[in-house]
Amino acid sequence: MSRPDLRELPRSSKVLAALFTVLALAAAIALVIQSQSDPVVHTRSQFIAGTPEAGASVSLDTTLYLPAKTPAPAVLLAHGFGGTKADLDGQARTLAQHGYVVLAYTARGFGHSGGLVHLDSPQYEVHDASLLVTYLTTLSQVERKDGKPQIAVAGSSYGGALALLLAGTDKRITAVAADITWNSLAHALFPNATGTVPGVFKKIWAGYLFQAGLGSGQSQAGLGSGQTTSAGEPTTCGRFAADICAAYQYAAQTGRPNAAMLSLLNASSPAEVLSKITAPTLLTQGEQDSLFGLSEADANARGIAANGTPVRVIWRAGGHDSSSTAGSDVTSAMLSWFGAAFGPGIHGTQPFTIDEGAKITSDGQARVRDTIHVDAYPGLGGGTAQARVVPIAGPPQTITAPAGGNPAAITALPILGAALGQLGQFSPGAQLSAIPGQFATFLSAPLSADTEIVGTPTVTLTVTARASADAVLFLALRDVAPDGSQVLPSNLVAPLHLTGLHIGVPQTVAVRLPSISQDVFAGHRLAVTVATTDLGYQLPVDARTYMVALDSGSAALVVPTVTGSIVHVGTPIAWLITGIATALLIGSGVWLLLRRRRLALHADASLATVPIVITDLVKEYGDGYRAVDGVSFRVEAGQVVGLLGPNGAGKTTTLRVLVGLIIPTSGTVHVFGDPVVPGAPVLARIGAFIEGPGFLPHLSGRENLELYWAASGRPDAEADFETALQIAGLGTSVERRVRTYSHGMKQRLGIAQAMLGLPEVLVLDEPTNGLDPPQIAEMREVLQSYAATGRTVVVSSHLLAEVEQTCTHVVMMHKGRLVAAGSVAEIAGAGAMQLAVPDPGEAMWILAAAGITAHTVPARRALEDVFLDLVGDHE
After folding, report:
1. Counting beta carbons within 10 angstroms of the beta carbon of residue 233, is it exposed (0 to 12), middle (13 to 18) or buried (19 or more)?
2. Burial of residue 288 (number of CB atoms within 10 Å: 0-12, 13-18, 19+)
3. Are the CB atoms for 279 and 173 separated by under 8 Å?
4. Alpha helices in 220-307 (DSSP H)
5. Segment-wise mean pLDDT, segments of 10 residues, the chain, 875 residues
6. 419 vs 409, 533, 702, 825, CA distance in Å?
7. Cβ-proximal residues to 540 (8 Å cutoff; 6+ apart), any chain
8. Can you tell me the distance from the alpha carbon of 582 to that of 576, in angstroms, rounded to the nearest whole number?
């Protein structure tokens, strides 16, 4: 399918397309500047002695990241449960590029580190971290201030708890950053436990985490290659310590913790050491998190602040239920926090930020949520003055719990939380989280104004048990649109275990609903639901019946809110307009530069059917550095051309000129006979992915693709979104905001964007960067199939073996110069040697007599060998 020439578009479409071209140019220039300014990071991997266990030494697998300039402050970086130091590589490199010495390591019991898993035990995991701090203090590259090494600790989830526990036990820590972690592990796994009431066991989450520990692999450096019973047979504990394994098995069988388990969980809880933390602490907590909710961060914040230690709290998008990791926003917040801690210092009351971004509301509309900045953290109650009382109504209702909790409602589950969020948000899918007969509902009148809920809503209910002395219930707050569709905010429910009930006698209970951040719009209703089942939790084995009613003295819902300032307005149009305004300034500079150079660029009718012709291309920068030096080559239709060479060969610069991002010093580039300059109409026939796309982080992957295409002014029918999304291979993640994407996910989405509209020429710079081997193989097939339709693909890469498998033709570059061009077969066969025999005919006869069929084949060498020979000629 050919793409329309911009000159044929309506005037409004041409203006929009031109603006978008300039916007893309601005984004690309910013990316170029960033990529060229990233400092070099040096790494060193080694094993460091950890805490001995059972009389054996234990080694910890570490990688040290050194910035360009030292000495510098250091950061000890810990990973999440079931992970390894490899998960921290991107974050560690970013910190190092910003001037920090970083030590990332694999916790004991995981990956190649030795030892057993003790769940952040002070005796083992926390002591390991202290030993690593000691190692950092011996390095000359670590900065000292008044004789004290400057060392911070950071981590997410399992690593976040480790960071807090270390800060509470090791006074050498200067600053802390803990993301999506727990305060009390007992409360997190058995929520609403009070006194002798055991709480409700999160059996699915606990089972998932236990399985993650079992799959942690075998140690290759010290103790931890598995355990055996007294009979010498392997246990079912993997690399879990025996006491941890026994505690889990008891809970899995009974649904409650025993004294030994509570002792272990409490010892591994930051709650035990918060009063001892004196290092300024940053707490970031995810809003989509049924494992460690906002209440866990609240307890940590209050406990640390009570000692006078500065604490900053940020509620961010994502969490364990959205498969979110410590992404760029968390790292940015960490950099800001550490910069202040290691610089002027952090003192006094710290601000509170709620950053949720784009959000789907109960009416099915995508609305963009502003980032709210509050002068001080208000807690989950929002303050009495800011709490809103919302009357709710509904008659007493009888609800039943089936024996064994089957069938059970589904709200949030490990890993599948995001997918369930999509299925369970709207009717009829909302029935997944509320099974008829198993829940009661109490509704408000339509709200007269928008209400921003921030914290823990509360309501008072009466519960009457019909046949049992206890009750297990699951409470939630839902946003109900005028058409009856509803959303369960972040798919969160609050479990409640009531004991000491007298059959037939109502018991009044003040209920804390899930801690959430949710915009509810005028005209919507709030609904409090009380359910008897939830698949994620341990449920009673016997059938139950309860009567649930509103407390006659207080038939109201108390909703916490906050008042703050908007840090940035997050509407896509606002972002687009701001970007365009900036881009127009840059674009005007490009236009003036073109005029100044007085380039004589003309179309060449003889090249009208040739996709790409580059002639004597030179690009020299202001300091005299010549990135491209006299390069010429030609690309025909149907070819997959690999632009091959090491980093610094000039590949990316050549591609930037090809797609009109930068202006050459001399030489010409023609695409289908038309000269290429920034904004040239012929660029509409090229799809490009150069060093990272300029995605809007607060929009989903799909919304970014749709916005990009809409801005081009072309008909939606020509976009072929489904093909692009299939190529992206992101599944349901395409509906998530891009800010939560990993590098590999952004890479795949960028390639899909380049393929929108099936352009005649596809230009991809290092497209396999960040992809795993199966994805690389899929990408290879996609590119070859794409070219088989008569279109043209140009791919740059420094991976010679991958180019050899993917491409039909190659253009080899070294130090800005062309060293070879031609088909893969021609170049790989050039100069190759064959094994010679005195009498080929006799050799063939001997082989035939042995039953071997022989054929003559051309000699062939690997491209890597050819390239090394050619480079030697051009040094």
Report:
1. exposed
2. buried
3. yes
4. 242-254, 259-267, 294-305
5. 35 42 45 49 95 94 94 96 90 91 96 94 97 97 94 96 97 96 93 74 86 57 43 63 90 87 93 96 93 95 95 90 62 89 91 69 48 86 75 94 87 60 40 80 93 92 92 94 86 91 92 91 93 92 93 85 62 38 40 40 82 92 79 92 83 87 87 83 84 70 82 77 77 83 80 87 82 77 82 84 83 88 76 48 58 51 62 54
6. 15, 20, 15, 47
7. 401, 404, 405, 468, 472
8. 10
Q: Which residues pair with 558 in a beta bridge?
A: 389, 458
Give helix 89-97 / helix 328-342 axis angle, nearest 10°: 40
- Full 3-state SS string of 112-176: CCCCCECCCCCCCHHHHHHHHHHHHHCCCCECEECCEECEEEEEECHHHHHHHHHHCCCCCEEEE
Q: Are 369 and 519 in contact (CB under 8 A)?
A: yes
How far is 697 from 330, CA to CA, in rounded Å? 13
Distances (CA, A) of 632 to 5, 71, 660, 812: 26, 46, 17, 11
Distance CA 292, CA 290 (A): 6
> Which residues pair with residue 545 across a beta bridge?
400
Span between the terminal Cα atoms of the chain, in Å: 44
**294, 316, 357, 674 from 371: Cα distances, Å:** 17, 10, 7, 46
Return the HEC string of 798-860: CCHHHHHHHCCEEEEEECCEEEEEEEHHHHHHCCCCCCCCCCHHHHHHHHHHCCCCCCCCCCC
Q: Which residues pair with 59 in a beta bridge?
A: 49
d(C-alpha 673, C-alpha 110), whole Å:
58
Coil/strand/helix, residue 9? coil
Task: Report the distance separating Cα 809 and Cα 828, nearest Å.
Answer: 11
Specify the length of the chain in residues: 875
In contact, 506 and 463? CB cutoff 8 Å: yes
* 0.85 surpassed by pTM: no
Strands 148-149 and 144-145 come out as antiparallel
Would you give the distance in Å from CA 8 to the centre of its chain? 41
Which residues in 645-777 belong to E strands, given as ranges?
Answer: 666-671, 674-675, 686-689, 761-765
Reduced to 3 states (helix: H, G, I; strand: E, B; else coil), residue 62 is strand
Inter-residue contact 290 to 492 (CB < 8 Å): yes
Tell me how far apart the alpha carbons of residues 737 and 317 are, in angstroms, rounded to a whole number: 9
